[in-house]
C-alpha cells in the first residue's frame, strides 16, 4: 500500500510503502467498539460517594431509653431513617468499572484503526517534523499547508519533542502523542493522523 509523503511546506515529495499487516486489514467495527468502550470505562474515575451509617459523624449515644417512653426504639441518630443519617444503597467509591481486554485484541483493533485511516485518506506522512522554536504560529502555518488544514488532527511523535508539544498545545482540535502510547480511542476521537516517516 503506497501513500504520499509531504514536507513541511505541504508539497508532495514522494511516496512510501506501508506495511500491509498494519495498514491493510479488514476493519471489524464491533472489535474496535469493544476496545474503545473498555478504554473509556478504564479511564472513568468514581466520584459519587454517599456515606453509610457507619461513616456519618456522630450518633454514638442512644437517643432515648429502649422502653417506657412510648416512642419507637432507636439506637442511633445516624440511622438511615433519620435526617442527617446515612444513605442506604447509595453510590460509593467501591464501584469498579474496569473492563479487561486481551492484549492481542487491543493490538488488532489498533491496527484496524490504522487501516481505516489509510483507506479513507486520513493518514498524512511527513518526511520529517522539526521546529526550531516552540511557536504556535509556526505550527499553525505548517498544518494549514497540509491536507488536514488545521482540522482535528493527532500528531504521533517517535520521541518526546518539547518544541512540537508546546507549539501544538494551544491549537484547538490538535493533539500530540508518543507513538508508543497510540490507542484506538485517541485515533477515533480525531480525524487525521500525522506521522513522521521514521
Give a description of the structure.
- The protein is α/β, with parallel strands linked by helices.
- The chain has two domains: 2-44 and 98-196, Ribosomal protein L4/L1 (Ribosomal Protein L4, Chain: A, 3-Layer(aba) Sandwich), CATH 3.40.1370.10; 47-96, no CATH class.
- The protein is built from six helices and six strands.
- It has helices spanning 20-23, 29-43, 103-119, 136-145, 162-168, 184-189, and strands spanning 2-6, 12-17, 123-126, 153-157, 174-178, 192-196.
- Helix 4 crosses helix 5.
- The radius of gyration is 27 Å and the shape is elongated.
- It starts with a strand and ends with a strand.
- The mean pLDDT is 92.
Percentage of residues in DSSP E strands = 15-25%
Number of domains: 2
- Cα gyration radius (Å): 27 Å
Lateral arrangement of strands in the main beta sheet: 2-1-3-6-4-5
Brief description of this entry?
This protein is 30% helix and 15% strand.
Please describe the topology of this protein:
Elements: E1 2-6, E2 12-17, H1 20-23, H2 29-43, H3 103-119, E3 123-126, H4 136-145, E4 153-157, H5 162-168, E5 174-178, H6 184-189, E6 192-196
Parallel strand pairs: 1-3, 3-6, 4-5, 4-6
Antiparallel strand pairs: 1-2
Features:
6-stranded mixed sheet; 6 helices; 198 residues; 2 domains; alpha/beta; Ribosomal Protein L4, Chain: A
